[in-house]
TrEMBL record:
<feature type="domain" description="Histidine kinase">
    <location>
        <begin position="41"/>
        <end position="258"/>
    </location>
</feature>
<protein>
    <recommendedName>
        <fullName>histidine kinase</fullName>
    </recommendedName>
</protein>
Length: 258
């Protein structure tokens, strides 16, 4: 709490007491702290690729350029790190768009089945490379939902890419489309590495990752779930994660039909 004091003077300007105003600072304090933490995180996330790029270009300039093969190897690292920075920046821009203004969604009636097929097609190659199998189960006569197609596609891409990333070779991923009352449910479950109990509550926080090194190696930014949550909630839906460490993870997305 913050307290402000002021003398209270009566009409004849005689001192007759003190006014004390208590202001609850908890919210403001929390926000300031979050903002500080966020800026620190962003700086740190960008600093890592910058340091890598700097050291590799320096090595090339210091003479490695004479060795063509080595140079190509180093330049590939530089290239990958640039891609990574660009992913972080575009994810951040998207999140800051959500923060700064009411996003105007272009809602229309859309088929989840078509959307899932489209996303699976986009990610098929990555799954093939890991010999992963995907099963799709769709309830008959599933109703269309009223939503922004691109936004929901992004949600599914983020969640399915996680399922692929955090599931070892030969894993199985199930996608289930179901309807319940006035909602459609999208379930994406994998039999991958799972999430320890103590991390589950923080998993939607910006930049939070169970294993930073692993996520980084797999190209993650730590922002995918935050973005997915923002999109789903601004469609009046919900996103929940159930997971068992070393067994697998199940993401349940509920979206209203209307
Ligand atoms: P990232 O870019 O690191 O994947 P996300 O915001 O998408 O960021 O996810 C945050 C973290 O949640 C991941 O780093 C990972 O530790 C964990 N996670 C997300 N999905 C899964 C999953 N299907 N299986 C295991 N861990 C997961």
């Amino acid at each position: 709490y913050m307290a402000r004091f002021a003398p209270y003077l009566s009409q004849s300007s005689e001192f007759s007491g003190i006014i004390i105003v208590f202001q609850d600072m908890t919210e403001q304090y929390k926000l300031d702290n979050l903002r500080r933490e966020f800026v620190a995180n962003v700086s740190h996330e960008l600093k890592t690729p910058i340091t890598t790029i700097k050291s590799y270009t320096e090595t090339i300039l210091a003479g490695a350029i004479e060795d063509k093969e080595l140079s190509i190897q180093f330049l590939n690292v530089v290239n990958d790190e640039c891609d990574r920075m660009s992913r972080i920046v575009s994810d951040l821009l998207q999140l800051s768009n959500f923060d700064n203004k009411e996003v105007e969604w272009e809602k229309e009636y859309m088929s989840l089945e078509k959307l899932i097929n489209r996303v699976v097609m986009k990610l098929e190659l990555t799954m093939k490379e890991k010999d992963q199998k995907v099963n799709i189960y769709i309830k008959k006569d599933l109703k269309d939902i009223y939503a922004d197609k691109d936004a929901i596609e992004q949600v599914i891409i983020n969640i399915l890419s996680n399922a692929i990333k955090y599931t070892p070779e030969n894993g199985i991923i199930n996608i289930i489309l179901n309807s319940k009352d006035n909602n459609n449910e999208i379930i994406i479950e994998d039999d991958g590495i799972g999430i320890p109990k103590e991390d589950i509550n923080r998993i939607f926080d910006r930049f939070y990752r169970v294993d930073k090194a692993r996520s980084r190696d797999l190209g993650g930014t730590g922002l995918g779930l935050s973005i997915a949550k923002r999109i789903v909630e601004s469609h009046n839906g919900q996103i929940n994660i159930e997971s068992e460490y070393e067994k697998g993870t199940k993401v349940i997305i509920t979206l209203p039909i209307k």
